[in-house]
Give the backbone structure.
Amino acid sequence: MQTLLRCLSFLPLSLLHRIGAVLGWLVYWTSPTYAGRLRMNLHASGVCIDTAEYKNVLRQSISEAGKTVAELPKIWLARESDVLALVECKTWASVEAACAKGRGLIFLTPHLGCFEVAAFYGGQRLPLTVLYRPPKLKWLEPLMVSGRTRGDIRLAPANMRGVRQLYKALLRGEAVGLLPDQAPGAGEGAWAPFFGRPAYTVTLVSRLQRATNAAIVMAFAERLPAGRGYTLHLEALATERFDECALNRAIESVVRRCPGQYLWSYNRYKVPAGAGSPPRLAGEGPRVQR
């Protein structure tokens, strides 16, 4: 399997994306649970103004989810110069401005577009420590680790030791990277609205920011049509009164710019054991059993 992935890394990105689109539809039609969650989360988000737009975004989401998987061999295994050539970024000045103040920097990369290439791009330009969870497929871990540690990127385990690594990196004035819309375990999050529904939201971002006075930059790499590469969007966020509600609002803002590339199939609204029941929000409709 590793040999196959290495062979796939030599294919053009356009072909990998076509393969990924087919893969996305295959998974959608063969997994009722996956398909139902995708439809439910997209519909409940309210990002689509009518049925026609909903159907269009749904079709995009199915294909884009497959592309997220199919492009991994290129991002992890192709030559670094070839991967960099796929990325255009006109907003790096926001990162330079934060670094010039001598502050640490927290990169937030939601499940939007190609979040793998966003971290790769940042790690080619500055020291970057990224929180990491091992994959369920053990054979994939060596490829994932080698692919994610190119450039000046270090991986921190998703435990207290890893959190300490992030904290120390920020105190050194370096950058760290986090997936802000990943559902945390009990005791690691707080309930906050996300597209009008309560979501158990990671508190690590706000805790790190308050402890280190780090700057926060939202980052997402928009996938361009026909495999032409990616446009990396970077936006500095206000850190005053930054909490989990502000975090989710910031994620919502970038998702609305590119809803077809968000991973709506992710179980964002799950209730971790021991986290308690989610609060009912004002204006929230009937809840669907998950």
Summary: The first strand starts at residue 87 and ends at 88. The chain has one domain: 2-261.
